[in-house]
Specification:
Spore Coat Polysaccharide Biosynthesis Protein SpsA, Chain A; 2 domains; seven-stranded mixed sheet; 10 strands; disordered C terminus
Amino acid sequence: MAPPARLACIVLAHGAAASLDRAIASLLEQDPVELVVVHSGGAAPRVPAGVALVHEPSLLMPGAARNRGVAATTAPFVAFLAADCRALPGWVAGRLREHEAGADAVADVLEPPAAVVPRAAWLMLHRRRTARTEQSLRLRAGLSYRRELLEPPFNEQLRQGEDTALNAELNGARVAYPTDVRTAHAYPNTARSVLSDAYARGKRRVVAERAIAGAGRARVLREALHLVRDAPHIERDPRVLAIAAASTGAYAAGVIRASPGPAAAAPPASPTRP
């Protein structure tokens, strides 16, 4: 009898999830994992034999979907994969190698697409999650976790950024940043869709940041403008850089559009009683 899998992988899906089959297949082709699909919103999808399904007809917030998956698994290490992504060869083995060597959490890198427009979206969105990014600049993202780190669980009220909020609390945790744990993400493939996606992400980011940490738009805008600093160290194609710069402008416009106006002046403080 085979020993139980050491890594649980939770595939997160909602609605039609057209790419779900590819996400599942990318994991089944690798070392054995405890594989669970958490799907919400709409009819339950069909999954291959041996793959567990947690289904909720109403749409779950991302944190709630993650927590359902964690509760449905028992392996000592837990990873997540969005239904619009694929785990590339070595994704499972690399995570297990780092965890077994003592890492509490293991980050991934986002694989660059070959085509110009999707590559520009990759550069704009994930320039701090590439194999070429200096480790000091790598984001603590795409993590798999030692199960004990997931208590307390993910925030179930956030529309996005639930992993960012939890990761920010991993003080003292040992996080590994290998370059061979690679994820392929689906990106927009027209310049128009790249710009509209960036604009929408900027608006959502402001809402998420206020919910997570009360951050102002200046901080979010500074982060977007770091593209000018980081991009030339990662990408040299001028076509890619031009589209990425334009999408950063669209992202900034979304941030500005969603940011609240100047706060009203606070009323005078009441006298303090002795």
